[in-house]
Each structure stands twice: as structure tokens, then as C-alpha cells.
């Protein structure tokens, strides 16, 4: 299955990419709790958008998210 990960997807252009690209989507954000708009988009997405919290300068954090997104998308 084709999958995408968008860094900086909690608002603006990144969030619009999330809305349009895929039926199952993993999004990396620095702080899941900070964006009420992001929460509203995720709530209306019928479980197709998955928000993964990551720090893009923390390799271990990113590798955990890679593993989690592989599990979600079967590959």
C-alpha cells in the first residue's frame, strides 16, 4: 500500500496534504495536544489519519514512528 508521512502536518500546507493524499495517513507532529484544528480534522477522518508524535532531530523517536506506521499500513 502506498503511504506518506508529512513532517509539519499539524497546520497549513502540511495539513492540507494530509487531507488529500491518502486513505490511510500517518502524520508526524511535535506536539499532538497543541492543535485543536488538527484534532478536529482527525476526528472527522473516519480513522484514516493517524497522528504520530516525533522530534525530527531524535533518531530513535523517528525510528519508532517508522515501525508504527509500517504496522498501520502493512508495509
From TrEMBL:
Domain of life: Eukaryota
Stored SUPFAM superfamilies: NAD(P)-binding Rossmann-fold domains
Name of this protein: Ketoreductase (KR) domain-containing protein
Source organism (scientific name): Sparassis crispa
